[in-house]
Amino acid sequence: MWLYGAHAVTAALANPARARRRLVATEDGAERLAGIGDQPEILDRRALEELLPPGAVHQGVALSTGPLPAESVEDLAGRGAAATRAAVIVLDRVSDPRNVGAVVRSAAVFGALGVIVPDRHSPPSGGVLAKSASGGLETVPLVRVPNLARALDALKERGFWCVGLDSEAETNLDPATLSDRVAFVLGAEGTGLRRLTRERCDFTASIASAGSVASLNVSCAATIALYAFSQST
């Protein structure tokens, strides 16, 4: 697996859990890696691009690596139960790696414990997702589960309130009503939350809007939800 882009590669090199197989860079790209202690193999731009998917926005740096160690939802829920406050993002069949990566990035910014996705209908943790996460994938676990409904049950058993975000919900998301442990559950654009996922939520809420567009991109909605949680202290 190849990771690419300055932020994604630099963060991966700083993560001791990330295997390093081959680090390559153009001469310009190598300057972006200055000071990290790892010397890249210098390639010309064409040779580097032959290693990567077509259209990869690589900024002249790439790292061949293995996947990060898998983490379970029980591990995540346990850490949340031990914390004073904790937030988790749960994505219900969000298939665009750029959207998932952007959610991971926001989770890293706001200190969320992790992002939970189903095994099926979710993108791999490859270059596109890692680039969109801008290094967040190295600090925020992307936890894959075989059954999303059971994962929500596991979170609820450890004290999390599951809040489904739905643009048609009558109640607006209000920081004052959020508990100290929250799992924000978001569905794919267009289809929204599946029935079984919605039924596992303690309640649903919408994000108040004043414009002509009724709903937000899933990554934007996740960011607003995490900001609301940060204001609920």
General description of the model:
It is a single chain. 34% of the residues lie in helices and 19% in strands. The protein is of the alpha/beta class. It folds into 2 domains: 2-64, no CATH class; 73-230, Alpha/beta knot (3-Layer(aba) Sandwich). Helix 2 links the parallel strand 2 and strand 3 (41-42).
Described by the principal axes of the CA atoms, the overall outline is elongated
Q: Tell me how many strands there are.
A: 10
Question: According to CATH, what is the class of the largest domain?
Answer: Alpha Beta
Profile the largest sheet.
Answer: 6 strands, parallel
Give the strand order, joined by hyphens, for the main sheet: 7-6-5-9-8-10
Elements, N to C (H/E)? EHEHEHEHEHEHEHEEHEH
Give the amount of beta strand, in percent: 15-25%
List the helices and strands and how they pair.
Elements: E1 2-4, H1 6-13, E2 22-25, H2 27-32, E3 41-42, H3 45-51, E4 61-64, H4 73-82, E5 86-92, H5 97-109, E6 114-118, H6 127-133, E7 142-145, H7 148-157, E8 161-165, E9 181-187, H8 195-200, E10 203-205, H9 218-230
Parallel strand pairs: 2-3, 5-6, 5-9, 6-7, 8-9, 8-10
Antiparallel strand pairs: 1-4, 2-4
